[in-house]
Predict the structure.
Amino acid sequence: MNSVIEVNSTTIKPVTPASYGHSPTPNDRHQASAASSDVASKTVEPSETVKTSSIAHPFVKWVGGKRGIIQALIDHLPAISPDHTPIDRYYEPFTGGGALFFALQQRGQIAHACLSDVNANLITAYRVIQSDPEALIAALTIHAKKHSETHYYKIRQQHTLTDPIAQAARLLYLNRTCYNGLYRVNRRGEFNVPMGRYKNPNIIQAENIRACHRVLQEVTIDHHPFAEVAPPDGDRCFLYFDPPYHPSDDGSFTGYSKLGFTAEDQTRLRDFALDLHQRGHYVMLSNSNAALIRELYAQAPFRVFEINAPRLVNCKSSRRQAVGEVLITTYPAGKLR
Ligand SMILES: C[S@@+](CC[C@H](N)C(=O)[O-])C[C@H]1O[C@@H](n2cnc3c(N)ncnc32)[C@H](O)[C@@H]1O
C-alpha cells in the first residue's frame, strides 16, 4: 500500500449563502401537494424559522454514507490547481447521501456538478429539493404531526405514489423514522425496513432542506446506472465512485451485496474507471479493503490508500468493529486542500 492515513473529523467552511441564489423568505407558504392521499390538499405553514446561514449536509442517512471519512476523501482529491481553483466538472455516479458533494460545494470547490444514482426515489428527492423545498417541508410537517406506528406502516406501504413531492416526503419521513436509517427493499423493490425506536425523531429538518436547495441550484441530477455517466472528452473532469462495497473477506461486511452489486459489476466499474483515466479524467473510488478490490486495482494507473474508517457495520452491537476501507485514485493524491 502506498500510504496509511488517519481519519480526522471535518471542519467545513461555509461560503456565503447569497452566492447560492434564491433564499426563501419566512412568508413563503406552499401547499403540501400530496404527502399521502389524506393530506393532499391541506395548506401548512412550515413550523421552523427560515435561516439562510445553515450549512447543507446530506438530507438522508444512507448506508455507506461518507460523512465519517470526509477529510480522508478531501485529502485525496487531485491537486488540480496550485491556487485551489474549484473542480470544474464534478461527477458522483453513486450519489447516495452525497456527503463529499455537499462538503465540497459548501467550500466553493465545485464549479459544476452532475449527481446520479440508480435509486429512483432518491433522485426524485434530490430533484424536489432542487425545485420545491417548501412543498417538501410542508408535506414533512404533516408527517411529523401524524407520526405514529400506524402512520409509519401506512406510509411504508405506499409503494406506488406518483406525485414527486409525496414520493420525496415519504422517502425522507421513512428514512428519519425507520430502523437505523437503513434503505432496504424486497425483491419487488418495496421498502421494507421496520420502524425505529426514536423518542423524538427530527422529521422535518427544514433548515437543512433549504440549505441543500441552495447548493443544488446549478447541479445536474440524473437517474441512471454508473456506466451511463458521460463526461465530455477534452475537459479534465473529476469523478468520485462510491459503489456498494464488495463484502469484506472476513464476512463482517456483507450488507451491500444485497443491493445486487456483484463481483462482475466491480470489474466493470474498474474497467470504466480505467477508460475514463485514458480519456484524461481524474477518478477517485472508495471500497472495502477486500482481496478482490486490491486485486482489481493492483496495477497502474491505480494507487490504493488504506484508510481507517470509524465505521461500525455489524448490526449485532457485540460484533461491531471498524471496517477496513480503501481509497483508490488514478492520479498522485494531492494534499493541497
Ligand atoms: C455506498 S452508497 C453511496 C454513499 C454516498 N457516497 C454517501 O455519502 O452517502 C452506494 C449508492 O450506489 C447506488 N447504486 C447501486 N448500484 C448502482 C449502479 N449500478 N449505478 C449507479 N448507482 C448505483 C445505490 O443506490 C447507493 O445510493
